[in-house]
Amino acid sequence: MAKSALESSGRSSSGKPSMRYRIKSFAIDYVRQWELQTMVIPGILFMIVFCFVPIYGLTIAFKSYTVIDTLGSAPWVGLENFKIILSDRYFWDSVVNTLAISFLKLAIGFVLPIVLAIMIYEVRHNRLKKFVQTVSYLPHFLSWIVLGGMMITWFSTTGLFNQLLLDLGLISNAQNILLDANKYWWIATLSDIWKESGWGTILYLAIMAKIDPTYYEAAKIDGAGRLRQIWNITLPNMKMIISLNLILTISGLLGSNLDQTLVLMNSQNREKAEVINSYVYRMGLAQGDFSYATAVGLGVSIVSVILLLTANKITSKLNDNQSVL
């Protein structure tokens, strides 16, 4: 009697829903929403084919793989590729460059979209607001091929940048700035911020648009100025989206912009321009050392996951133990 009662209730002896009950419940839900469920299937198949199946290729990192081998025939070498990585000076140089550029982008590029979004939100003239938004978004839609070509022209000895500095009397001799390796970190940082800061304001503006205007009206009645309203109303309402962007930014510290690097890097600034992504590209596709490149990519992915979990843990502590992931 007890067993039949459990079966009729759809639960196993442990109190959890039985497998048969869960399959039946899923079938009922699928039939009820078959249009929406069917629309999801192509996305699931896409993820399986392009995201999960290629994971098997990570075994290359533990093999000595060449183009004449298959994934199954390549000989196993264990952790040999990872040992080579630890002793590779050029790899560690790329790590230093990646972290330097990423931390500069984090220090400047993370705060700037927040400030820019607040400034745009505070503009009361609608036409001026739309104009500023359009101008700030525009660089995002230009590829690094286009922007890189523009920058190469601007920074040449006869380019716009040198001509302005000469006219202002700030320099006496023109020089190609992209050939100076010591300036590359700042060039990469500032050019990326210029390209993406406007686009980064979209989420913040969307959140600010949902803030109840009565909060600001009550603050005005209490005598709060614009800065006090921003500090006590605007920023607290943006706390969760700021935390989410911070987590994603920290988790991507080891993933510099490959397109930007390939366009702006040259033989003169390579020692400061080579980042992990371009190093993996050069070792894997240019030199054909697929096992080594895969090992580097796998190691970077593992560290990125650790950074993601750590940043999420820290931000959840700052947000009263509320995780944004």
TrEMBL record:
It is found in: Cell membrane. InterPro entries: MetI-like (IPR000515), MetI-like_sf (IPR035906), UgpAE/MalFG_permease (IPR050809). Keywords: Cell membrane, Membrane, Transmembrane, Transmembrane helix, Transport. The chain crosses the membrane at residues 40-62, 99-121, 141-164, 184-209, 230-254, 290-309. Gene3D superfamilies: MetI-like. Residues 95-311 form the ABC transmembrane type-1 domain. This is Sugar ABC transporter permease. GO terms for cellular component: plasma membrane. Belongs to the binding-protein-dependent transport system permease family. One of its GO terms (biological process) is transmembrane transport. It is a multi-pass membrane protein. It comes from Saccharibacillus brassicae.
